[in-house]
Structures are given as structure tokens and as C-alpha cells.
Amino acid sequence: MIPWLERADAFPPLELALSEPNGLLCAGGDLSPQRIVQAYRQGVFPWYSAGEPILWWSPDPRMVLVPSEFRISRSLRRTLRNGDYLIRLDSNFPTVIRACAKTPRNGQAGTWISAEMQAAYCKLYELGFAHSVETWVDNKLVGGLYGLAIGKMFYGESMFSHATDASKIAIAHLTRFLEAQGFGLIDCQMNTPHLASLGAREIPRNEFIASLHELTAIPPLKGRWASDGASQGWV
Q1: What confidence tens digit (pLDDT) does each residue in 134-145 have?
Q2: Among 34-38, 43-47, 226-230, which stretch is predicted with the lowest mean pLDDT?
Q3: DSSP track, 144-189
Q4: Could you report the per-residue pLDDT of 155-177, keeping only the tens digit for each?
Q5: 113 C-beta neighbours (distance < 10 Å), count
Q6: What does pLDDT average to over the chain?
């Protein structure tokens, strides 16, 4: 059994998270901005399917990506150099999260990004916590990602791609932007072969939490991120 959170309850100690399924910590609570930001500051995130209670997770080990360690394949580097796209930041967050919810994924039926989750993260976007990185071609949104930034910590949530390498282009620009702004870590949550191919790796949860506490204590970038339509200058 896992603890059930009432609205005002604090999260239980992370050491109580289950090992199977890995990281399941508790259920219940709500998706208010205050609750979600509190969760991320403690290394916890919500993940559940429509019709289920809200489930909160803190897996051990944790999948992370250091911005400077992003791995660029030769083919992706050619695409980045060609620059036949525009990158925009925070220009259409609601469309990005809806696209992440609707885009089919191999081995998955349905989506965990329910209407309730979309509404919660759009509110966090309005408050300046959530951000989107968007790949545009011929004035059409073809790929992107969204996540949360707290201090100098970025929490990646989901991505989508409707054109070759569109989501990878967005990740490449995200890592470059975060590195330039002094961000230390991207939380990727769970291990997948795709994330590993991009340079992400697993670290023990206690190491992740130590880094998180240090990075979230740094003053954040305020408000929405500036969007300059960048596409050129990649080497």
C-alpha cells in the first residue's frame, strides 16, 4: 500500500517509494501549481492515466541529461547546420502540450497527458514555470517539447515530432540554451533507449536530489523565455 494524500498533506519521505513499480511514492492530492512545484522541488512528479487517481513518483535511479553532454549524431548535425527551420521558445505552449498528448507512441495506447494535466501545466506556463521549445518549418509547428524550470534545474516532460528529427532539433536547441543560461541538469525521469542515445544517463536518486536542491536554490529566469526564431550558427 502507498500513502494517500489529502489536499494539505506533505509528500512522504522518498525512501518510502516502491521499488516495483519503480518510484511509486503516493497517490491523491491535487494538481494545483503549488502542489506541482512543491513536488518537483522534492524530486517527485505526477504520472497517471485518465480515470486513475493522481499518482506521484520518484524513481531510483533517475534518468538525467547534463546539457553539455547532449549527443549529436552526424545526421542531426547536418540538419542543424542546414537551418531549414525556426526555433521558437514559449510562443505556443498550449499547442505543444496538446500535440504531445495526441501524437501516437510505439507501445503505448492512449496518453497520460490528460485534459486535467494539460490544464495544470498551462497554468504553470502562465505563471512562468512551464516552457516550450518549438520547431517550425514553413510557418508550421512540426515538433517540440515542454517542461518546467525551477532555479537552474529543467524538468523535461514530453516531446513530439511530426517531421524528421523535429523533436531532436528542439532538444538540441534546449540544451544549448540551458547551458548558456547556467542550468546544470535536465530531469528525464525514466530510462528509455531514445534518451540514452541522446546522452542521458542514470544516477542514484540521492545524487539527483542533492543536485536538485543546489540548482533549485539559484535565482530563476523570470517569466517567459525570449524567442528569437534562431536557426543559424550551429557548428
Answers
A1: 999 999 999 999
A2: 226-230
A3: EEEEEEETTEEEEEEEEESSTTHHHHHHHHHHHHHHHTT--EEEEE
A4: 999 999 999 999 999 999 999 99
A5: 21
A6: 93
Residue 106 — very low, low, confident or very high, per pLDDT cuts 50/70/90?
Answer: low
Identify the burial level of 99 via C-beta atoms within 10 angstroms of its C-beta, where 0-12 means exposed, 13-18 middle and 19 or more buried: buried
Evaluate whether residue 9 is within a structural domain: yes
- Look up residue 87 and give its three cell numbers: 526555433
Q: Are residues 69 and 179 in the same domain?
A: yes
Please tell me the distance from the alpha carbon of residue 174 to that of residue 34, in angstroms, as a whole number: 25
Residue 181 CB contacts under 8 Å (≥ 6 apart), including other chains: 152, 221
Same domain for 168 and 94? yes
Grid cell at residue 153: 534545474
- 39 and 68 share one domain: no
CB atoms within 10 A of CB 97: 26
C-alpha–C-alpha distance, residues 133 and 180, integer Å: 15
Q: Dihedral, CA atoms, 74, 75, 81, 86, nearest 10 degrees?
A: -140
Q: Mean pLDDT over residues 197-225, rounded?
A: 95
Q: Is 114 left (phi over 0), alpha (psi -120 to 50) or beta?
A: beta
Residue 196 cell numbers, joined: 540514452
Tell me if the pTM is above 0.90: yes
SS3 85: coil
User: 58: closest CA among 129, 2, 127?
Assistant: 2
Is residue 235, in this structure, part of any structural domain at all?
A: no
